[in-house]
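Researcher: Last one for today. Full complex below.
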Amino acid sequence: MKKSFGALSLVFPAPVWVIGTYDKEGKPNVATVAWGGICSSDPPSVAISLRKSRYTYDSLIQRQAFTVNVPFGSQIEIADYCGIVSGRNADKFAAAHITAVRSEKVDAPYIAEFPMILECRVSGVMEVGIHMHIVAEILDVKVEESALGPDGLPDIARINPPVYAAERKDYYGIGQHLGKAFSVGKVFK
Amino acid sequence: MKKSFGALSLVFPAPVWVIGTYDKEGKPNVATVAWGGICSSDPPSVAISLRKSRYTYDSLIQRQAFTVNVPFGSQIEIADYCGIVSGRNADKFAAAHITAVRSEKVDAPYIAEFPMILECRVSGVMEVGIHMHIVAEILDVKVEESALGPDGLPDIARINPPVYAAERKDYYGIGQHLGKAFSVGKVFK
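Model: Here's the assembly. Have a good evening.
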């Protein structure tokens, strides 16, 4: 039996991504979002949603660039902090003891201590209700060497990226391996 | 030290969602996507990306409706199967032993056996490279009663929704509780 919850922005899983930008004075800032996802494979593109009122929105539009910073599960306090304080009133890099590094491909900073970074250039903006939905090309993905598996590829288990569960407002890590994609479903063919 | 992977559609976590539609003859079909995310809180909205060539894309555009079906972790074989076979050539409901139920709010079917369902009405479509990026209003969220916590809210740990890790093509479940959102970050304030 299913219970109906009505019109709600609730789906599992949602990500926990820290968005890096430079403001108009060139000061680096970071802000956390849970509304986003990959939106194309070619050119590789990601979409995130931000309210217009957020400090990050103006910076992102001015520079047409941002980074997506994926934390280790153990960095959840930093990721959460970056979502509850505005860059208008705080230097989040100093407060959370993190380091801003200039990106190679776009005009935005990334967090040195985070294991997975996407350098993104804005390619489109769409208003969706109270949010601005920003589509961007991913020009580079950088991953910490300690987060690579023996095959040299990024290992989600080593990063243990936080997953956001809305309504209850919980963060969870990554659990057991469920199977190989494009493979385990062959049992039904 | 970070290793650069270049332009790649890779970020953690990505979801595993099975999209439900009726085709032009009214036959229910399901197809799996990993490119998507919530894109507004008000009106509650979700965005997914599909290639134009997919059977689901035509159905979704004709009916202006679809469902997002989130599997239990234990249903990963069904979710994977729905991504490797086209509805043009197979009745995936029969093959995977799942049941199509007509949605209440939109002209699309959902999977009875899956624990979390979003009923969605298309509100915008944007071409992003090789993908069509579809924005839709979430008109209802339905959750199986066995997937609710003692507080009556959807419990991500009981659903254990699969997370997709691209490049290595792995599915993982949900792990340990990392903390409360809008709370654990207060240590830096």
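Chain A has one domain: 14-188. The CA atoms of residues 182 and 188 of chain A lie 12 Å apart.
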